[in-house]
Design a protein that fits this description.
The complex is a heterotetramer, with 2 copies of chain A (about 80 residues) and 2 copies of chain B (about 150 residues). Chain A is an alpha+beta fold and about 80 residues long. Chain A has helices at about 10-15, 30-40, 45-50; strands at about 1-5, 20-25, 55-60, 60-65, 75-80. Chain B is α+β, with helices and mostly antiparallel strands. In chain B, strand 7 (about 120-125) and strand 8 form a beta hairpin. In chain B, the strands form 2 sheets. Chain B has a 4-stranded mixed β-sheet with strand order 1-4-6-2, sandwiched between helices. The chains are: A alpha+beta (about 80), B alpha+beta (about 150). Chains A and B meet through helix 1 of A and helix 2, helix 3 and strand 7 of B.
């Protein structure tokens, strides 16, 4: 499954890109699994997602918890807790 | 009239006041937030999620308009790189009644601090740069509004 | 910087903002009160006791400066004859911290309504003119601050 | 005793002047007595001070109650309750 992922703030800096399109392996069906997969994929992912409890996520513009399913998602945004206006 | 914007351009407070005031009488409360040059800060960089901030600001403006009797409402937030003294955020709320204008303005600035998807990176004169961690104080203030 | 004035001349909000801002960073809260043209009002006339209003405004400004950490404070009140839409009162309060600026601004506008020696006469388009009676609501709001 | 009196708002309008210097008769020693004397003095005074409970007063710029003595006063200001800013 193809999925657009966008990164913000220090997650973006550590990933070295603001967005990418990934081809998700079978079995990566929720946000927790996505973070584990990105952390295992390469050194940048390991750096960005070493502490998944520090990551927040939105699916198609809506904030979601770690167990949220990826089925039907067009865009997943991954970022640190917001620091406000 | 509700005016909401996220912009990389400098916020022109005088021009926004003129736009906001058009035809309006009564009470106007405003809040201007500026970049503070504390601890040798030389740049504040604000990153946002454009789709989510736009939705967040719009929701916030409509929540205020539902809650108070407002003649006009302006909510402008700057993003990108800013220097000390630059205006980050401008809230203008006008109402026939001063208590409504004041309450709406305070509500909006408190909520902006938590509801809008923004991340701040600070760069200091010694070259150090760091992303700001979320602050509990802002969450507590915003919760007061229930 | 504390700036306090009672004036018959029109209040120039833009110029006051520039004066107030000089060198200041952080948070600025403001309140602008304008003459409302309700019920066919054509003129609002404000009379004051010059010695007492001057003392009252000065005391109010210093009470706010003692209570909150303020970088700058502006309190301008107009007197004499005004038309609907004219600015009657302008409060600007700046602080490194937004909660201090907001609280000081609200305190000042609430107290202005009761502590300053002013009398209002309203003239309507049918020629009727009447002095406004004191309102209990303002006294209640001001008392909240203890 | 000579005393400066100033009038404000509808008290001023009814008195037809913003201020005057009066020569106080002996026995007019406090604010209550002053209002009674002004009300009895002429038609304007009767109109302005018919309801003394609606009048507020300041002596030399300081708000005073009805029983305040006039001894030593330079200026007495008489006016309705203030209507705020």
């Amino acid at each position: 499954m193809a999925l657009n992922i966008s990164y913000f703030a220090w997650v973006r800096e550590r990933m070295g890109t603001a967005d990418e399109v990934v081809d998700l392996p079978v079995g990566i069906t929720d946000l927790t699994a996505l973070l584990s997969w990105l952390a295992a994929r390469d050194a940048r992912g390991a750096l960005a997602f070493a502490e998944p409890q520090r990551i927040r996520a939105a699916i198609d513009g809506v904030m979601m918890g770690p167990g949220a399913p990826l089925a039907g998602a067009r865009e997943v945004a991954l970022f640190p807790p917001v620091t406000g206006g | 009239m509700i005016r909401v914007a996220m912009q990389a351009a400098a916020i022109d407070v005088g021009a926004e006041l003129d736009l906001h005031d058009a035809g309006g009488h009564g009470a106007s409360a405003s809040f201007i937030g500026r970049v503070r040059g504390d601890d040798g800060l030389v740049e504040l960089f604000l990153e946002h999620h454009p789709v989510m901030t736009e939705a967040g600001l719009g929701d916030l403006a409509h929540a205020a308009a539902d809650r108070w009797q407002l003649a006009a409402l302006t909510l402008i937030h700057r993003v990108g790189a800013m220097a000390p003294g630059d205006t980050i955020v401008l809230v203008l709320a006008s109402s026939p009644h001063r208590s409504e204008a004041l309450a709406a303005c305070e509500f909006l600035i408190d909520r902006l601090k938590t509801d809008v998807m923004l991340w701040k990176r600070e760069t200091f004169e010694d070259g150090r740069a760091a992303w700001v961690e979320a602050r509990m104080g802002d969450e507590v203030r915003a919760e007061r509004w229930g």
